[in-house]
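Database export, one record per block. Field names are fixed; values are copied verbatim from the stored entry.
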Amino acid sequence: MARNPADRRRLYKRISLLLAGIVAGLVLIAYLAGPEQKEAEIGLRYGLTLDGKSWSTAIDEGNIRVELDRDAAKLLALYSTGSGNFISELDLAGSNPSTSNRFGNLLWPQCTRIATEIFIDQDIPAATRSQMRDATISVFLWLKELTGLYIVLTKGSSERGEEFSSAAQRISTPDDNTIAIHWVDKENTVMSPDELAAATMWATQKRGQQIPRSTRIRISSNVFDTMPDDEIDRKSRKMAIAHELSHALGIGHSNDPDSYMYPVLAPSASITPADRTALAIAGSRAC
């Protein structure tokens, strides 16, 4: 035992340090043994009207699951701009990502189960509601095939399971990992008379990437009044739906007037090789 004040002070100091170390160790053990700590996230909201800069990051990091023909595949080539950035052949062909910034492109991960929900305004006649539902399902299945994404129809996909779109739902945020599409009667005041569709996406910046969280799409019944009843690969109601749903998957507008992603659907609109490439990239984000 220490015999003088100096020795006692040194002893007390060592004991204090030992006790502090034990406490710190117990706190660390409790932290590690507790619930998994959730990573900080930054929530974002995008009105999908702006087009991104380039597909180059998504091409460089992508894991494309679907087959592309030769014309589409060659659009995956990347070129240096000389300033440390890259541009892709696809960018030059007309297609753009919906949003891109220092976190790259806004794309769904391949392993995410994307629940898709169809809601239709009850004021729309029953026969038209049935046509809207069938056309929307056809487009969802088409996009699933061309992107390789894990898209699942969960609500409103049958007459028996019909879901009506309420005024509150049309302005609400969908659940996480959900794309909610609302068919709105053209007389409804939620959309302006000349507006055919509007899409909003909620996203998260996480692990250096921006990840979609949910999307709400409103489509006016005017689409059924102004567009022919034809297949997806030509100007039609289905093509108009495909245009909006493609925004929800991360595809922006094209500067090619013959593309279905051109801001205005022309009589000559089609699914171009650049469009098929963009769809493949939209489903290429590895988990």
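Remark 1: Residues 114-251 form one domain.
Remark 2: The CA atoms of residues 143 and 246 lie 8 Å apart.
End of record.
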